[in-house]
Design brief:
about 325 residues; alpha/beta; 6-stranded parallel β-sheet
């Protein structure tokens, strides 16, 4: 999925027509249809809600991408469940027939896009009420509320203002358990968590337990970090320790759960028929290229970059 950064319509780093052109390039590879694009909507910006039908009809957006921390001034922000911006936005989403809303929560936006005045809008307290009031809309919570300024540990009831716990608390406050219309996305979240096995265990364990193994979806934010292969490899092999599973009720991460997180879960809100995708693999140029590469006598899966402290220090010496 190709998404958008927070900005005004005039200052978009990636414009909608550029995203659509990229989608056409990918689709031209023997009809692979591997790429979806979002429609960027920030309802407290003038004209954004009115522009939604065009994004749906002309640009064929697959979902809406929005940022509650962003607005026309440093102290501005909005909530999914407020009457001024959230309710009109969700009503227009329903009117367009695109019932998937992807909302950035948690991970702070860089300065000057966000200040201490609007950081509060990154919390997830509005997710539960909006999802309960709009059961026909799927809410995909980008970053799952994760904030690297806070350490992820066992779930602490009563946490409303930061971290993955704020997402879980919001769901519980509104009687939304596993399998609801709320999905937790892992873009950047897993990249941070995989550095620390304990935080990774609690972060992933909490999401699987409270949001549900059918409602955690893959994301990498690889546009910022380069190849996501290291994130993929880490999630393929990561396991929550037995003692943590026993103490906190986290599930074992089985091959079935990995497959769901890597793609099967996201197919549901986006309305993708995985059987159709699988049937098209034989004629998909990317799939054939991967098969040919795997059949080489000496395939390499090396991850580039420093792998030891010595290599890192050497790199810093030469790059300085």
């Amino acid at each position: 999925v190709l998404t958008f950064t927070p900005s005004t319509e005039e200052n978009m780093a990636l414009t909608t027509d550029e995203a659509a052109a990229t989608r056409e390039v990918v689709d031209a590879m023997e009809g692979s249809q591997r790429l979806l694009i979002h429609g960027r909507v920030i309802p407290n910006l003038d004209g954004d809600i009115a522009r939604m039908p065009e994004l749906a009809e002309t640009w064929k957006a697959a979902a809406w991408k929005t940022y509650t921390q962003y607005g026309p001034a440093e102290d501005s922000g909005w909530w999914l469940d407020d009457d001024e911006f959230g309710a009109p936005f969700l009503a227009k989403a329903r009117e367009t027939g695109i019932h998937v809303v992807c909302v950035h929560k948690g991970l702070p936006l860089p300065s000057p896009l966000m200040s201490d005045k609007n950081r509060q809008y990154g919390a997830c307290r509005d997710v539960g009420p909006a999802a309960r009031q709009n059961p026909d809309i799927a809410f995909i919570i980008y970053h799952s509320g994760f904030d690297p300024a806070f350490t992820e540990g066992p779930y602490k009831p009563g946490t409303h203002d930061h971290g993955i716990d704020s997402l879980i608390q919001s769901l519980q406050d509104n009687d939304l358990g596993p399998g609801s219309n709320v999905y937790a996305e892992l873009g950047s979240t897993w990249r941070y968590l995989m550095r620390d096995p304990d935080q990774a265990a609690h972060g992933i364990g909490k999401l699987l337990k409270y949001v549900g193994e059918d409602n955690v979806v893959w994301g990498t934010d690889c546009i910022w970090y380069g190849s996501p292969q290291d994130q993929i490899q880490a999630f393929r092999t990561f396991q929550i320790a037995d003692e943590l599973r026993e103490q906190y009720g986290y599930p074992e991460i089985t091959p079935e759960i990995r497959a769901k997180v890597f793609g099967l879960n996201a197919a549901i809100p986006y309305g993708i028929d995985t059987a159709d995708i699988a049937a098209g693999f034989d004629r998909d140029i990317m799939h054939r290229a991967r098969q040919n590469y795997a059949n080489r006598i000496d395939p390499t899966y090396v991850t580039y970059g420093p792998r030891t402290r010595r290599e890192l220090l050497r790199l810093r010496k030469y790059s300085g």
